[in-house]
Specification:
heterodimer, A: alpha+beta, Ribosomal Protein S8, Chain: A, domain 1, 2 domains, five-stranded antiparallel sheet, 3 helices, 35% helix, elongated, B: alpha/beta, Rossmann fold, Cytochrome-c3 Hydrogenase, Chain A, domain 2, five-stranded parallel sheet, two-stranded antiparallel sheet, 18 helices, 9 strands, 42% helix, globular, binds iron/sulfur cluster
Amino acid sequence: MNPAMDDSIEIEPTPCAKDRGNDLPVLNEILHALNELLTHDRQTVIDIKSLPFGPVDEERLSIALGQGEVAATIHTLGESRVTETAYAGIWWVEHRNEQGAVIAKFIEVTYMPDILKAQHEDVIVARQKLKDALETIKLNGA
Amino acid sequence: MLQPWNKNGLTVAERLQAEGISRRGFLKFCATTASMMALSPSMVPAIARALENAKRPSVIWLSFQECTGCTESLTRSHSPNLETLILEQVSLDYHHTLQVASGEAAEEAREAAMKENNGRYLVVVDGSIPVDNGGVYSTIAGITNLEMLRETAEGAAAIIAVGTCAAFGGIGYAKPNPTGAMPVSAIISDKPVINVSGCPPIPTVISGVLAHFLTFDKLPEVDDLGRPITFFGQSIHDRCYRRPFYDRGLFAESFDDEGAKKGWCLYRLGCKGPATYNACATTKWNEGTSFPIEAGHPCLGCSEPDFWDMGGFYQPLSTPTGDVTRTLVYGVVAGALIGAAAGSMARTRKIKAQKEHYKVTTDDLEESS
Ligand code: SF4
């Protein structure tokens, strides 16, 4: 029998302090980051790829953080999803490529992730575009 | 192979702009590039500033005594977008496996790239270089690998030795080394050489180093074996998710025992994680899906020098040291430090075993610890 099909095989979640998984130290780091945000207005970004996670650790972290009020999708160079967790100020930022594969995933501890804000350079382009559009409307209306 | 428009020498930012990609898209590109380079996300603004002006360098890729696994690793990568973006941003002017041109036309392309970009081009090497009998054991277009490397390196800005063969000699260099195989660094001493070891190396690590050169116009900082610290700064053991089992002394003793089923530490099954420096435990393979230890197999140590001659893949290098129950009390941070110490101890023993050419067994080490 293929061991992969054998459901009697159970991989134990990695034990850590008090038998928790590797998600526990990350939750502590996030708590510290929230303190930094409140006391020094300093934001923190944690690259999920840099964490030594086992098979179930990311899932456990995700369950522990829960789901909050905001969920946004950005369409540029593939899809990106920004979702607030159940804890205000703690966000998941997930970048996918055009084929839909996750290429980077971060936890951002901030009031609003930078990627959600309109970028200065894009606003300059937008001003010109809107000017041009108005010109066209005026021309068509005349 | 390259996009024709890219021949115009656009910077990364200009290129994305020309494709109608917003500044927000550029920010996403910078954030994912930082992650690929294993740099802290706080580096994103610096990366953005550097990429504003980054021009596309000429790359000459030389494949010597090798199996093409390193090229396969990069080109068969399952997250093509980022690697592709990086590869499109370099001008890959010579790569005899990938290029369309063959024979004399191929060699002319190499010579032209060397002439046009003298002093500025990047050389990527995969494979070891046989030097016995004048290097006759491996030739391309009638030129020995040894001669081609020396000739091409002369006008290079830097050399990236990709894979354990180019970095440390690899399988060609393994005993009895019938061709007199050598790594790049044994032949070229007057140019910066960076070693991206691994058999094969993780694709993101290859493109991460290329991205670093493209972004900052220089090679990243290296460890004592010439490997980029951002990827090779910590041992597999330091970052292994099975580490808490090691710290508690919970080991699989065979591939089908209770411990193996429960995902315990693979140390006693020959895991070389404590003496192996690479990014597998965090960057992982196949779109970040897994890595050998996660799949239930001990680390072979493929990114370390002489891993073929280390006395057997399933022979433990040493036994756990220190009071494993006490390490738990110190928690994760202290655990990482102890892991580093165990790693360096295992490394010393490995070097000793290698010098004296004997096999280290668990029993030997239990006696000496
Ligand atoms: S010995 Fe190997 S399996 Fe065990 S914790 Fe270290 S790297 Fe992981």
